[in-house]
């Protein structure tokens, strides 16, 4: 087996589809299927179950994926370490991201600084997908982190995992069950993100697809104020996990079916410097998160614009 086969298996697990995995890896679907078939033959085990609408790992596949992810991460670290030793990185990289990608951005900046202490990362205010695309095309920003299904075809994109969304309530208003349906959340007054924000776009999309009409009690552009309003009992809300689990005075509830949006690290084709290349080489998804993504179905996986 080789790293290409490992990357193929991980991509199939993460995206739940040979077609989508092949698109992300920029290979043909038949060649990816053949590579996985060869891998299964070598291992003498079936790694995936092909369902009508999804591909999921078998028990043997889940065991294999743990080690495959670790091997890929070690290979990435080895490559980055050699590159850093041979070509020390300095300079700056301008980063902009949607608010729901705050956790991914924070982790990448930390790892980037650990590997390249001579470089500087300039982080701009969170923006919407449209503003990110405009900033990358104009050269105002070097790198963006945005919704995968909103990435236009003229930008280069690397998978950054998924961001799950959950329901948040005041402590004395939360349903007793740890897992609820979206219709249960819709029965409560809601505090919604500000209009035209990336979070509001995701919020509205989820309710629209479920054919539910939110009962809006308040609208707030500031995330800290929004969470304070929830804690005060003004209403519940729907937020990405990285934001929903940040305060002890609010109660989180898992939504089923699972709501999650894919994220991508993006940059303009041809826009490259050693510093930008070094930042984009940082793995956006840690091993544990990759494993969780592989084990849980994602209901949001829309092709990129132009497909």
TrEMBL record:
<dbReference type="InterPro" id="IPR005119">
    <property type="entry name" value="LysR_subst-bd"/>
</dbReference>
<comment type="similarity">
    <text>Belongs to the LysR transcriptional regulatory family.</text>
</comment>
<keyword id="KW-0805">Transcription regulation</keyword>
<feature type="domain" description="HTH lysR-type">
    <location>
        <begin position="1"/>
        <end position="58"/>
    </location>
</feature>
<dbReference type="InterPro" id="IPR036390">
    <property type="entry name" value="WH_DNA-bd_sf"/>
</dbReference>
<dbReference type="InterPro" id="IPR036388">
    <property type="entry name" value="WH-like_DNA-bd_sf"/>
</dbReference>
<dbReference type="Pfam" id="PF03466">
    <property type="entry name" value="LysR_substrate"/>
</dbReference>
<protein>
    <submittedName>
        <fullName>LysR family transcriptional regulator</fullName>
    </submittedName>
</protein>
<dbReference type="GO" id="GO:0003700">
    <property type="term" value="F:DNA-binding transcription factor activity"/>
</dbReference>
<dbReference type="Pfam" id="PF00126">
    <property type="entry name" value="HTH_1"/>
</dbReference>
<dbReference type="GO" id="GO:0003677">
    <property type="term" value="F:DNA binding"/>
</dbReference>
<keyword id="KW-0804">Transcription</keyword>
<keyword id="KW-0238">DNA-binding</keyword>
<dbReference type="InterPro" id="IPR000847">
    <property type="entry name" value="LysR_HTH_N"/>
</dbReference>
<keyword id="KW-0010">Activator</keyword>
<dbReference type="GO" id="GO:0032993">
    <property type="term" value="C:protein-DNA complex"/>
</dbReference>
């Amino acid at each position: 087996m080789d790293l290409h086969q490992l990357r193929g298996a991980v991509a199939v697990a993460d995206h739940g589809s040979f077609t989508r995995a092949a698109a992300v890896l920029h290979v043909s679907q038949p060649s990816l299927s053949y590579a996985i078939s060869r891998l299964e033959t070598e291992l003498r085990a079936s790694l995936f179950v092909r369902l009508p609408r999804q591909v999921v790992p078998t028990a043997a596949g889940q065991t294999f994926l743990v080690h495959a992810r670790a091997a890929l991460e070690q290979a990435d670290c080895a490559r980055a370490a050699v590159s850093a030793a041979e070509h020390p990185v300095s300079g700056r990289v301008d980063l902009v991201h949607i608010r729901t990608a705050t956790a991914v951005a924070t982790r990448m900046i930390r790892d980037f600084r650990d590997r390249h202490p001579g470089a500087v990362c300039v982080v701009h205010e969170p923006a919407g997908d449209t503003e990110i695309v405009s900033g990358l095309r104009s050269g105002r920003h070097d790198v963006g982190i945005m919704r995968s299904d909103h990435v236009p075809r003229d930008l280069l994109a690397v998978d950054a995992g998924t961001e799950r969304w959950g329901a948040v309530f005041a402590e004395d208003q939360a349903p007793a069950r740890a897992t609820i349906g979206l219709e249960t959340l819709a029965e409560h007054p809601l505090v919604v993100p500000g209009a035209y924000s990336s979070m509001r776009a995701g919020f509205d999309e989820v309710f629209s697809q479920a054919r539910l009409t939110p009962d809006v009690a308040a609208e707030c552009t500031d995330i800290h104020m929004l969470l304070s309003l929830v804690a005060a009992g003004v209403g519940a809300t729907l937020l990405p996990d990285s934001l929903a689990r940040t305060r002890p005075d609010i109660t989180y509830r898992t939504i089923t079916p699972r709501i999650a949006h894919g994220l991508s690290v993006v940059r303009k084709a041809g826009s490259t410097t050693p510093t930008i290349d070094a930042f984009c080489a940082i793995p956006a998804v840690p091993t544990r998160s990759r494993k969780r993504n592989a084990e849980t179905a994602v209901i949001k996986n829309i092709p990129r614009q132009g497909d």
